[in-house]
Amino acid sequence: MLNISISKLLTTRAVWMLGLGALVLGGVASGQANRPDATLDELVVEVQALRAEMNQAAAASIRAQLLVGRLQMEDQRIAALVRELEAVQADLAASAHTRTDSAEKLKSLEEAVMGATSDVREEAEKQLAAAKAAAQQSDHRQQLLKRRESVLAKELQEDQARWQDMNARLETFEQSIQAAR
Description:
The protein is mainly alpha-helical. The chain is 98% helix and 0% strand. α1 packs antiparallel against α2. The two termini are 73 Å apart. 1% of the residues are buried.
């Protein structure tokens, strides 16, 4: 009888456990019945967040490409300005050399005119007038070249400042992308 009471006790306990288990399973099942709606809402929110991130990434990519393109164009412009400035400076050096030669020729022609006789003097004065005209033309060309050099140097300085600004913006953009990661 002792064995029977223990077995009845175990059976009663088992019935209670089964009942309690059924209640728990029923609660879980009813909770899970609500869960798919919540999961669907969570998925919608997640998809929307992913779309927003993709749009931000696409916009950032476009901005980066534009900055890089502008930087490349500015780099090409600077290179062209440097080449043009170097050419003007070479022309200026050649013009200065020509001007020095013209000044020496003028001096020798003036001396020749002073010491020339009347029949040679007229020819020497013509040569002197032509040399003076050439010297004036050389001076005028040199002034134009100096102005052009000044304009190009200013443009180069402005373009370099613009390049540095764009490069700084690109570096800031790059740092913001790295910080976001």
